[in-house]
Design goal:
GO biological process, one term: SOS response
Order of helices and strands: EHEEHEHHEHEEHEEEHEEHHHH
Keywords: ATP-binding, Ligase, Nucleotide-binding
Number of strands: 12
GO cellular component, one term: cytoplasm
Strand order of the largest sheet: 2-1-3-4
InterPro entries: ATP-grasp (IPR011761), ATP_grasp_subdomain_1 (IPR013815)
Shape: globular
Distance between the termini: 60 Å
Helix content: 25-40%
Structural class: alpha/beta
Bound molecules: adenosine-5'-diphosphate, magnesium ion
Low-confidence stretches: 343-350, 352-356
GO molecular function, one term: metal ion binding
Number of domains: 3
CATH topology of the largest domain: Rossmann fold
Amino acid sequence: MKKVGILFGMEDTYPWAFIERVNQIGDGKVKAEAVQIDKVQQGIDYGYHVIIDRISQEVPFYRSYLKNAALMGTAVINNPFWWSADEKFFNNCLSVQLGVPVPKTVLLPSKERPDDTTEKSFRNLRAPLDWDYMFDYIGFPAYMKPHSGGGWKSVYKVESPEDLFAKHGETEQLVMMLQEEIVFDDYYRVYCLGQKYVHIMPYEPRNEFHLRYATESKIKGDEHKKLMKTIHDLTIKLNKALGYDFNTVEFAVRNGIPYAIDFCNPAPDADINSVGQQNFDWIVEHSAKLAVEKAKAHKAKKNNCTWGTFLQEAISGPKGTRPAGLKTASEAKKTVLKKPVAKKKVAPTKKSPTKN
Ligand SMILES: Nc1ncnc2c1ncn2[C@@H]1O[C@H](COP(=O)(O)OP(=O)(O)O)[C@@H](O)[C@H]1O
Ligand SMILES: [Mg+2]
């Protein structure tokens, strides 16, 4: 008998449906339950062949428990080591390397210094930063959002350098990204499981929360078919590179090109009340199927987590030459058209490592 566990927080529809479905299709060979923890001792195997992790981003105790479980051979979905290492800016960098369209993006140092650092901790940062270059490259309006985060928290639309500096002033110790706005004709949210099961959901982020999935593709026929194939292939490509087994990728479509906007969602919303019955049924069915497959494929005393091609190739050595998407800073400078931008700067605050 193989054992599947699910680790979860406040969500209350998906976990129970997942457990029920695994127990139905597990056919007496695979059984599922809510993970039970009453102690966590180093180097001890608590007996799960597969764990679906829906919450360790919020509970560091669970993340550490899962790393031990992975060491003991549990197929943890998603790999807790990779999840700990990953963030959205790196995701974008990797996409550039992979040739996946992403909005132009730069990383901004936090407005306030991290705890226990002083001005002296930031001698590697030039003051002022090269804001003119960044504004020329990104343009306005733009989006500013945390380099690691989710749930639309601290996501800002900024209209001008002044607006950017004002809003950046509210972001405390968050490391932010400044990103080109993709003015989209169409938007999709895509579930991807096991790097092979893909479910494309039309999504309207401008609707009220409960109506975001109540929308349709804006295009039809062959054009629609072609776009769905492109989105499917880009989704697989990103998840294979990152090594996620349970993720969503969001795409904003501008002039027929799907730009990957948000693709670091390793515990994506799967609540029936937001995704709707049809999408809920898909995610329950396919995640149960994946868990049963992983449980049956589990090899004792081996690492059964998924490792993305980025890491695999980093270890096994590069394949071929530098990928086409990557440039040096001086090559990049040549490609940014110099446009005049508003020069007015907000005075630096005492606490600011960015010094504006
Ligand atoms: N570059 C962008 N262009 C257009 N819209 C964006 C952009 N970045 C974010 N958005 C909008 O803001 C929403 C939240 O941003 P997102 O990157 O998905 O953050 P989160 O991880 O918090 O969901 C998106 O669903 C989208 O509607
Ligand atoms: Mg999002």
